[in-house]
Specification:
Blueprint lengths: L22 E15 L2 E22 L2 E23 L3 E14 L3 E5 L12 E5 L4 E12 L5 E14 L35 E14 L5 E15 L4 E4 L12 E4 L5 E15 L4 E14 L6 E13 L5 E14 L5 H7 L16 E13 L4 E14 L20 E19 L2 E18 L6 H4 L11 E19 L4 E14 L25 E17 L2 E14 L3 E2 L15 E2 L6 E13 L2
Antiparallel strand pairs: 1-2, 2-3, 3-4, 4-7, 5-6, 7-8, 8-9, 9-10, 10-13, 11-12, 13-14, 14-15, 15-16, 16-17, 17-18, 18-19, 19-20, 20-21, 21-22, 22-23, 23-24, 24-27, 25-26
């Protein structure tokens, strides 16, 4: 019988209503070897990793957005070769590593929301996917005990990271101009001087450290570290404007891709002295100095001084404890102009945000660790850590004729702190069985404030700020509770079994623009209320079996399962307005609650020669 047609059942649905099953498959093929020859050890590793399938993804732009299943076709190859020389006095290791990442998709073709208000959209756009990359690393590690009571270590690394993938069309920019198609995109070299980025990063890293015991009861550790990154790339110039896309020929402005290079150096010394030999009570003081120079950064040059004091003691035959306090201060000049002038052009009028990881900062941290051994079968431990960081954003000032588009301080994270508390218990009911139970509570807090001249409540109440973007103050807290149990059982001399299970529950609270309140809101930043909390649950289970087939061969079996679920919601750029206003107000459920199940099975065979 000859078929002349085929009817495929379809669901009449549009947009987010279309059901799409996402998931990925990962295949790994690996081999390694080790050869011993006198004081020398030669080893190598070959690993091929392929991942394919799809994952949930979305795009949100000025004129609309779309949700889609992003195709996954990733291949990663890695090769390692190493030679090591080891004697009682001297140790040396030299290793070469090459890695290569390849994405089988240059881009994914999707509807372009701005092309038409009716569904289905009339035009399509290319959404870029990750480019191919490769890297070479040469690593040297050397150590010697030639000096009495002293050990000297030297680690050096040279690296070359490359990205020379052809430019894909601009993400979500078909440049319609009244006609469909992919005209004037980066694949046609619009606004660029080459057909690829041809990015190269040279990596030079090193660390020299010395550990010594110059006198009884004292130990000294001194070190110096060097991290240099040099970046080069083809000039990448893109036209910019207020509407349309990057390839629009009517645009007169332009932007550049500006690489960030840096030189990071650090030096420090730790001095420890044993105050009491019987209780093994030890006092350690430490100092560290960090100096950072960056190009195309908000803070080009900064330095950090860190002081630490630690006291540890056995506190009797069955207990041990360690308490430490750390204080750090980072200084630097924050520039609100240069990075955005390079990326967006003069007078871009962006919401200038401070880079908290570069801004001047004061940090304090306290850490406590205790351990108590009740019996040979039962022991318990407690870990507590609290760290508080406060950031300072200086007032915006002009640099020559360049004047920031706002006064006051830029926006940014003013404070963040985290608290971690974790008790655990180890129990051995028999010599061949071990059980471990733990619980961890973690809280992470952020306080964001800013937006120029209206960055404080007092400023927001003044005439220039009324009805403007005003100030915002976002405070949000994330709490995570994790409980877990693990155990291992040595069934006999040939078989070992192990199991591990963890359950984590957490929630995140978001707040936005806790500031401008007006009687008749007309803009998305006015009268915005807090978003609902997001709660999540995650479970992980791992089972492992190791069986000795012969004195020189082992069989390994492992099964893993992970489960994740949360009540995430989808938010548009519009605000949440009160009743009685005509302003747009949207907070939609969007996607259904994410629900992921991941299973994996592994088998391995190990040989000893």
């Amino acid at each position: 019988v000859t078929k002349t047609s085929l009817t495929v059942p379809v669901l009449t649905a549009t947009g987010a209503m279309q059901p799409v099953q996402t998931g990925t498959r990962r295949d790994i093929l690996a081999a390694n070897f080790k050869y011993l020859y006198g004081d020398w050890t030669f080893s190598g590793l070959l690993r091929h990793d392929h991942k394919e399938g799809s994952m949930e993804e979305s795009y949100d732009g000025p004129w609309g957005g779309t949700a889609f299943a992003l195709p996954i076709d990733y291949t990663t190859d890695r090769y390692d070769l190493a030679a090591a020389y080891n004697t009682r006095v001297n140790q040396v290791s030299l290793q070469y590593t090459f890695s290569h990442f390849h994405d089988g998709n240059s881009f994914v073709n999707l509807p372009y929301p701005f092309s038409n208000t009716a569904v289905p959209y009339q035009l399509s756009a290319a959404y870029s996917t990750p480019p191919d990359t490769s890297a070479h690393y040469l690593t040297l590690m050397a150590a010697t005990n030639a000096v009495p009571n002293t050990r000297i270590n030297l680690n050096l690394r040279l690296g070359l990271e490359l990205q020379d993938d052809m430019f894909a069309p601009d993400t979500a920019d078909p440049n319609p101009q009244g006609a469909p198609g992919f005209s004037n995109l980066n694949s046609n070299l619009q606004g660029t001087s080459a057909n690829s980025l041809n990015a190269r990063a040279k990596i030079i890293q090193g660390k020299l450290s010395l550990y010594s015991r110059p006198i009884p009861n004292m130990d000294v550790n001194a070190y110096y570290g060097y991290d240099r990154r040099l970046v080069s790339l083809n000039q990448y110039q893109v036209f910019t404007g207020t509407t349309g896309g990057s390839g629009d020929t009517t645009f007169t402005g332009f932007s550049f891709v500006v690489p960030q290079e840096w030189l990071k150096q650090n030096a420090g010394v730790d001095v420890g002295y044993r105050l009491d030999a019987k209780s093994n009570t030890k006092l350690t003081v430490a100092y560290r100095y960090d100096d950072v120079d960056r190009s195309n950064a908000q803070v080009g040059s900064s330095n950090t001084n860190t002081e630490t004091v630690t006291l540890s003691s056995a506190m009797g035959a069955l207990a041990f404890g360690r308490l430490s306090y750390e204080h750090a201060e980072r200084s630097g000049v924050l520039n609100y102009l240069t990075p955005w002038e390079s990326l967006e052009g003069p007078g871009a009028g962006l919401a200038y945000s401070g880079a908290y990881y570069q801004a001047p900062m004061k940090s304090d941290a306290v850490k406590l660790m205790t351990q108590y051994t009740a019996t040979q079968q039962l022991s318990a431990a407690l870990f507590v850590q609290y760290k508080n960081d406060n950031y300072t954003y200086p007032a915006a000032t002009a640099i020559g004729t360049n004047v920031p588009p706002f006064t006051g301080n830029g926006a940014g994270i003013k404070q963040d702190y985290n608290l971690t508390v974790g008790p655990s218990v180890d129990y051995r009911p028999r010599d061949d069985v071990r059980l471990h139970i733990f619980y961890t509570f973690e809280r992470i807090f952020f306080d964001n404030i800013g937006n120029g001249a209206c960055s404080t409540a007092a400023q927001a109440a003044t005439a220039p700020c009324l009805g403007s973007a005003g100030y915002f103050q976002n405070k949000y807290t994330s709490d995570v509770n994790t409980v877990g149990v693990s155990g291992d059982w040595k069934v006999n001399d040939n078989l070992n079994l192990a199991a591990e299970y963890t359950f984590a529950y957490g929630s995140v609270m978001f707040g936005q623009y806790n500031g401008v309140f007006v009687a008749a809101p007309t803009a998305s930043y006015q009268n915005v209320t807090n978003y609902p909390d997001i709660s999540s649950r995650m479970q992980n289970l791992k089972l492992t079996a190791a069986y000795k087939l012969t004195p020189k061969t082992d069989l390994l079996l492992q099964a893993m399962w992970s489960y994740y679920r949360d009540n995430n919601w989808y938010d548009t750029a519009s605000s949440i307005q009160g009743a009685g206003t005509t302003a747009v107000s949207i907070l939609t459920p969007g996607y259904s609650s994410p629900n992921y199940n991941v299973g994996a099975v592994m088998a391995g065979f190990r040989c000893h020669f």
